[in-house]
């Protein structure tokens, strides 16, 4: 099934055609999600990073609604009294009726208002509300599904909040309620059933059934049209959850999803075609110095190299200056995240590097949290040995420096043969003997609780990559989230990503993909797939993604073996690049960060809310969506200079030393950057007209 252009809005250039004017002075926005001030997954990142932009748009009329989790509130939320008199009356009325509702500011960029509802406090109403849900919608929720029980409580409390707010308003309100994911979706269904004056938007970031099906090793995308969705949901005991998600999608005035690939999935599984695709963005912070991110890359790379020196002590038979750091990170979903195909490609890459007598060494990091009981003793010992060697070198250096200083003081050139005495040699020999190792450097940095059944370790055993001296590809499995306080690899995730050379994310199921997006804004090239939202988005807006360090792997129309060969080719060609070619590529990658800035992607959410207002209040608001005629204008062309990839430009590949390559390459960084800036438009107003006032207002200039 081809990825056809099937949505109302699929390119940024299409938004240029909308010329109505928006006036939202009398409208209020409630954005409702289970992950408001409550980090569970990627939706938390979406809402957190988007909050500043939405706060600028709606001002004092923007409220985030989520669950009250005391441990999170202590560190993330400043509880205050509501400033909006209508909202204050609403919360007071609910608290007097047996609820616990809190109001405050979420201490993130933009400082948005948050309304936090204590779901557990009203658990006594669960059976009553379940019965009402059955009577109204014929959806039964089993007692043992705690998540679904929370969704029922949260949904009824949310609609109570919205209904009470509407009742407390002196004049008929214009309320927009934006619901994220199935956990918040029941509130939307009840809003429509109770006919509240609320314009509703529902965003699914990944379909429930899609995630379950992909985890079951089925040919998901090529059989989308053939699934019996009710049976599949029932077989996986998620039928009630599926019903809640599907009901929310059908009841919403506007239904959105995060990518074109997920839109196709939603159309087949949820049986409704999304009205708008709302891609996920990031808050991009530009450095005052143009190439400051290159300096940060060098600093972080040095810290990773220090870890590598300790991890491979006794087997440091490779040149760190010719060592490339690759990584994959995310939830430990072995097949969905593409760890299986990445490992197979690494085995093939190892063969290619060996038969071609390459002096490049690849170290691949797997950052995927799994069940462990402690650090691996051998791994900790490696870092201790490295530190001991450093201390020994410093001691000898100080002794050498003191003798050199004294020799120069008396006006004599030092006798080098006498600068190091027997004691110095003894110290150094003991240090060398301490680095001797009888075993191979460990693949895993921790002791796994389920070592014998772990998918990554079993695959490593099958392909035989055990970090031996003859291997040009080494593997380090770090089954824990990175932390700057770790005694092993004391780096946070952002710092680690900056120090790597390439992010590899060959996912089979990835509705959006924040990991490659984060790589892009930090100027780190990445490999994604045409089954990820990020990959599809980049393919649409970049004429030649690989020239900008965005490699798109075909996992939709190729078999597993073909995709693995393509991934191996990407990795091998990347290994052939010279240092200067990698620098050029990082410059180009970083320039793509504007594409992923919420200042640009936020307009999709703006459009979805305005469309909902026009559908819910047609007598007051007017909105006409026009089909974009082309995607021209918001598209990066192929760079005019010689591409950095040896696969595309053989003559630019070095064959001898890096010093002699690239002297004749046609590359002008400033000229390329200027041309790319032309392809990114400045943020502009998305207009909307209020029929009653006729005023013309906008949000951006």
UniProtKB/TrEMBL annotation:
A GO MF term: alpha-1,4-glucan glucosyltransferase (UDP-glucose donor) activity
Kindly report, in one word, the top-level EC class recorded for this enzyme.
Answer: transferase
Q: Region entry Disordered: which residue ranges?
A: 633-701
Q: Gene Ontology cellular component?
A: cytoplasm
Its keywords, alphabetically, are:
Allosteric enzyme, Glycogen biosynthesis, Glycosyltransferase, Phosphoprotein, Transferase
Named in its record, the pathway it takes part in is: Glycan biosynthesis; glycogen biosynthesis
Top-rank taxon: Eukaryota
Provide the family line: Belongs to the glycosyltransferase 3 family.
> What is the name attached to this protein's record?
Glycogen [starch] synthase
The species this protein belongs to is Sparus aurata
